[in-house]
Amino acid sequence: MHPSVGGLLVFAALVLTVQAHAQNYPNRPVRLVVPFSPGGAADVPGRILTQKLSDVLGHQVVVDNRPGAGSTIGADSVAKAPPDGYTLLMISNTHFVSAALYKKLPYDSLNDFAPVTQVTSAPNVIVVHPSLPVKTVKELIALAKAKPGKIDYASSGNGSTQHLTGALFIKMAGIDMTHIPYRGSGPATADLLAGQVTVGFPGIAGMLPQIRAGKLRALAVTGTKRSTELADVPTVAEAGVTGYDVTAWFGITAPKGVPREIVLKLHAEFLRVLKSPDVQRLMLNAGQEVVWQETSELFGEMLKIEAAKWARMVKESGAQVN
Q: For residue 189, is it within any domain?
């Protein structure tokens, strides 16, 4: 047999093997790594999606919370996972914030992951403990200027979107507040509710019950438009910090090298779930707007834009890992 013919036969066999694996996928549980703590802005949509995705795939999809180091611990675990479609990663803005903040990461934030699709978009919200005597953004700025460095703000960790949201606000408002990083949204929220720290910049998901119960006071949302769930709360720009805009998003990726047929199947099944009115209602109740791309390639293009955008925002904010 001519060597070139043999090579073609081997290639054809590999293609057929990949296609067979894709057709049988999944045949065991799938793990979605959420690189944040339980109960936070990423965890809520993650659990909504995995519950519905388990139904459409016919196999259980489980959330695996791996918080810490600005989502880099969870991301690193997925970058090193077998590229077989059984380990997925929920990423957010934090994925690229950390890439800009941390000088050396054990993975490439763009090239070591296969994009599947975006799933949600939502602003963060500036909240304060009721013990802090401010009811508007202007009052918060005035108090911070009167007491430079004396007001603490919580974040879900160094390199998190909450960290950058706060750092950018501080720079644009011309004030000084002290950053207190936590290992995830859960511990940060607990100390906010207890009044151990008095200001936070968390995602809306998970904050709505606390705001509605009066346990935290919402001053502003961080995007360009108001949240339908907090219609009476202005945007930061409306409240006086012109040009301020931080919108958080979540998306799904897999390790680099996952067969294209599996990526296509995952993309199709995620869209099937995201287009469900039930899922859209649950996401909206959690303060998230369902968003998707029609192809995984379009999501990949979005990620390139986001990587550059957040690198620029990290530089402009002056945020540092401390």
A: yes
Query: What secondary structure, in 3-state letters, does 129-163 show?
Result: CCCCCCCCHHHHHHHHHHCCCCCEEEECCCCCHHH
Residue 35 falls inside a structural domain: yes
The answer to whether position 242 is within a domain reads no
Q: How is residue 304 written in tokens? A: 């390139």
Question: By mean pLDDT, which of 14-23, 138-147, 189-198, 251-260 is the weakest?
Answer: 14-23
C-alpha span between 322 and 280 (Å, rounded): 38
On whether residue 164 sits in a domain, the answer given is: yes
102/9 same-domain check: yes
149-170 tens-digit pLDDT: 999 999 988 878 899 899 999 9
Which residues are 308's β-sheet partners?
Answer: none
Number of domains in the chain: 2
Handedness of CA 63, 67, 69, 73 (dihedral sign): negative
Q: What's the predicted TM-score (pTM) here?
A: 0.80
Structural domain for 134, as ranges: 125-230
Query: Is residue 12's pLDDT more than 60?
Result: no
d(CA 219, CA 221): 7
- Choose one of 195, 230, 265: the last residue of a domain: 230
Distance from CA of residue 249 to its chain's centroid? Answer: 5
pLDDT in tens, 98-108: 999 998 999 99
- Strands 125-128 and 217-221, by their bridges, are antiparallel
- Is residue 123 classed exposed, middle or buried when 0-12, 13-18 and 19+ CB atoms within 10 A define those classes? buried
**Hey, is 168 helix, strand or coil?**
helix
